[in-house]
Amino acid sequence: MILALHDIVVQRDGWSVRADARFAEGIHLVTGRVGSGKSTLAHLLAGSVVPETGRTVSEGITSVQIGLQFPEHQVTAATVAGEIRSWGLDPQVIMPETALTDKSGVNPLLLSGGELRRLELACVLRKDPDLLLLDEPFSSLDCKEKNALCHRIENRNRGITIIFSHETWHLPRIDNLWEIVNGTLENRGTIPDALTRWTGAPPLLRRLIISRMDAGDGEVTRSGCRMLDSVFSQQ
Q1: Dihedral, CA atoms, 157, 117, 168, 41, nearest 10 degrees?
Q2: Is the terminal CB of the chain with fewer CB neighbours within 10 Å at N or C?
Q3: How many distinct helices (H) and strands (E) make up the chain?
Q4: CATH assignment of 2-63+129-194?
Q5: 29 close to 176: Cβ distance less than 8 angstroms
Q6: Residue 216: pLDDT band with limits 50, 70, 90
């Protein structure tokens, strides 16, 4: 499976995001500061945003699913059980996964932020599409829930998964790192080499890399990779 972006430009109220990219199978992380265009790019890949210029080309992708940054925008039913059924899924399977068994008749919009996030993510992940887009999926989740989500994403052994997030501490092990800088999507490469080019790296990881480089240590990427295991997947 391949998803390619050719000379893409999307403009929004005085700012723009540009992208030339090729996403292969595996887990990709798209990072960038708040407001850099991550959500816009996610919606573009989902087909709900049309670019001013450029085109997207896909190969082998027959199903696409997006988990929205604001899960309340994804709700279509008046009860938790009804919301699960609206995804074509069985409430008896999904509710235990989300610890919502006793809230089957509750309006999803009356759930807490974390509960609604768990509900929508469980449905999105259960659909298991060829192309899975997750926009700020860690928002509203506590540390335990973030770790559980990381493991769930890592255990998805097919298709293309693209995570759009400014989260830097609770992340799954990824295959490719991308960064939106000054309105342009930049490919930082594969892990671990991408760590040395990640301008938004967590401070602790950045200090480790710099200290190793200052010492002339040829083990920078291997040390960075070990650090990445703790940063990207807290056990």
Answers
A1: 80
A2: C
A3: 7, 9
A4: 3.40.50.300
A5: yes
A6: low
Nearest to 3 by CA among 85, 63, 71: 63
| CA–CA gap between residue 95 and residue 104 (Å, rounded) | 8
Mean pLDDT of 32-61: 93
Q: Tell me the residue type at 64.
A: V
Q: How far apart are CA 178 and CA 142, in angstroms?
A: 25
E strand or H helix at 212, and its extent?
Answer: helix 203-214
Can you tell me the distance from the alpha carbon of 56 to that of 110, in angstroms, rounded to the nearest whole number? 38
Report whether 78 contacts 118 (CB < 8 A): no
**Does position 204 have pLDDT exceeding 80, yes or no?**
no
**Residues 23/160, Cβ–Cβ less than 8 Å:** yes
* Residue range 146-196, pLDDT digits in tens: 989 999 999 998 999 999 998 877 888 899 999 999 999 999 998 878 878
**What single-letter amino acid sits at 43?**
H
The predicted model scores a pTM of 0.86
Which CA distances in Å does 134 have to 46, 129, 182, 210, 227?
10, 12, 22, 31, 24
Mean pLDDT score of the chain = 87
Contacts of residue 95, defined as CB under 8 A and 6 or more positions apart, other chains included, come to 80, 81, 84, 101, 103, 104
The three-state secondary structure class of 94 is helix
Distance, first Cα to last Cα, the chain: 30
Confidence of residue 42 (pLDDT cuts 50, 70, 90): very high
Q: Where are the domains of the chain?
A: 2-63+129-194
Q: What DSSP state is assigned to residue 66?
A: E
